[in-house]
Amino acid sequence: MEIEVLKNLKWLWAAFSVAWALHIGYVWSLSGRERKLRSELEDIRSLLREHNKSED
Amino acid sequence: MRESVPKALAAVTGISVLTAVYLIFVWVPTEATMGIVQRIFYFHVASAAVSFLGFFIGGIAAIRFLNNRCNSLDDLSVAANEVGLVFAVVNLVTGCLWAKPIWGVYWAWDHRLTSMLILALIYIAYLILRESISEPGQRAVVCAVVSIFGMVDVPIVYMANRWWRTQHPAPVLGGEGSLDPRMAFVLYFTMFALAMLFWCLVRMRRGLEALRRETDALRREAHALT
Prior knowledge:
The complex is a heterodimer. By secondary structure, chain A is mainly alpha-helical. Chain A has one helix at residues 2-55. Chain A is rod-shaped, with a radius of gyration of 24 Å. Chain B is 79% helix and 0% strand. Chain B has six helices and no strands. Chain B has helices spanning 7-27, 40-68, 71-103, 111-132, 136-163, 181-225. Chain B starts with 6 loop residues before the first helix and ends with a helix.
C-alpha cells in the first residue's frame, strides 16, 4: 500500500514540477525577449541620434 | 516588464497560487479510487479552463481588432493566445503524466485528447505565422483570422467527451459526474489562482508586444533614413 502511494507520488511530483517549469520557462523567455528588444531599441535610437547630428 | 504587473496584482496572484498549492497538497481529501495521483486533476482541469479563457479573450480581441484596427487589441489578442497556449501545454503534459499510472499509457488517440492537441497545434501555427510575416498590418490581420479560427475549436474540445465516447473521464463540471464539495471548492479556487497568474502573464506579454511595435516603427524610420 505504502509502495503504491510512493509510486503514485512520483507522477504527482512530475506533473507539478513540469507545470511550474513550463511557467517559469515562459517568464524566462519573456524577460529574454524583452532584454533583446530593449538593446535593439537602444541601438536604433543611437543610430538615429547620430544621423540627426550629422544632418545638423 | 515588471512595471506592467502592478504590485497588488502580483501579491494577490502569489498568495492565491500558494494557497491553491496548500489546498491541493494538504487540505483536500484524497480520492478513493485513484489515490494521491488524482491531485493532478486540480491543476490539469484548471489549466484547461484558463487556456480556454485565453483563447476566447484572444479571439474576441481579434474580432474587435478586425472591426476597428486598434493596435492595443492586436497586442491583447497575441498576449492572451500565447499565454493560453502555455496553459494548454501544461494541461496536455499533466494529462499525460496522470494517464500513465491510471490508464497505463501516456496518450490515447481519443476525441478529447486529440482535439486538445489540435487546438494547441493551431496556436503553435499562429505563433509561427506571427513570426514569419514582417509587415505589421498584414501580420495583425492574418493572425486575427487564425485566432478566430482557433477560438471556434474551443467548444469542440469542451464538448468532445459529451458528443463522443472517449477514454477521457466524463465531465465533472456541468456534466453527469459528481464532485465532493471540498474537491469542487479546491478546483474553483485553483482556477481563480491560475486565472490571476494568466492575467499577470498577459500583462507582461502585452508590454513586450508594445515594445516590439515601438522597435519596429523606429527600425522602419531608420531604414528610410539610411
